[in-house]
Amino acid sequence: AVRIDLTAQESKVGEIVNLMSSDIDNILNAVAYVHYVWVPLLQLVAAAVGLNYVIGTATWGGVVFMVAVVPVYIVGFGMLQKLQKLTLKKRDERLDVIQEVLQGVRIIKSCALERGFLERVHEKRVSELKVLRQLQNGWIFLVVLMTAMPSLTQTATFITDTVIIGNSLDAATAFTTMALMDQLRASMTIIPWCSQQLMMAAVSLGRINNFLARPEVDLTHRGAQANGKDA
User: Fold this and answer.
1) CATH topology for 13-211?
2) Averaged over 124-139, what is the pLDDT?
3) Is the four-CA dihedral 24, 205, 145, 38 of positive or negative sign?
């Protein structure tokens, strides 16, 4: 960051502070959730094999239902990723105003400009909270959907077995199926939090890459100029 050309960069102090605090924390927090991505997939495969052994062809009813919900996840996570980028951008703007206040606090106090800057900070914070509220509402929807997936899949499996195929559902089959579905409940509960951390880390990593990819200072040219002046 020290070598970024100040004449070419588009960054402000607020963005740099946010990169060094929030974005770095997002990447560090995501490391703890990496293994929660593939473990639920293995549990899902094991549960599907067990269900196929217990209830047979009706298992595909639940599988088809879960596959049908995947586009909802894709669209939802795409929207949340855009909202996450917008949230960080709004936070950059707010931190930039706060940094401006801290740098010019003497002038602000001597000229009695507190109210104007207070309104600017409040406006930036309200704008940030508006986007943050939309982001959290989207996460609530996806968390509820993912948490309810085992029960919904179980219902779809039973409907396929009894209504579509026409089999009779006995107690042993029903309770065994419910037990296998319950094994997925813990995994389906932790997947939303894992997805949230990984998505935030991906957004933060992109912001840091964009910052570091900006033009750097030409140290060779500046060194030549300095030598010419010394001569």
Assistant:
1) ABC transporter transmembrane region fold (1.20.1560)
2) 91
3) negative
Instruction: Concatenate the DSSP letters of all residues of 138-192 into one string.
Output: HHHHHHHHHHHHHHHHHHHHHHIIIIIS-----HHHHHHHHHHHHHHHHHHHHHH
Structure-token pair, residue 91 = 């936070």
Distance of CA 101 to the CA centre of its chain: 31
Strand partners, 32: none
Q: What is the pLDDT of residue 190?
A: 74
What is the per-residue pLDDT across 44-77, written as a single tens digit (0 to 9) for each? 788 888 888 888 888 888 888 888 888 888 888 8
Q: Are 177 and 161 in contact (CB under 8 A)?
A: no
At 38, which amino acid appears? W
Q: Which tokens in the block code for residue 179?
A: 């037990």
Domain parsing of the chain, residue ranges: 13-211
N-terminal to C-terminal alpha carbon distance within the chain: 31
The pTM score is 0.68
Contacts with 143 (C-beta within 8 Å, 6 or more apart), sequence order: 192
Tokens in use for 192? 């939303």
What is the C-alpha separation between 49 and 228, in angstroms, rounded? 76
* Contact present, 58 and 48 (Cβ < 8 Å): no
Give the pLDDT of residue 225.
Answer: 54
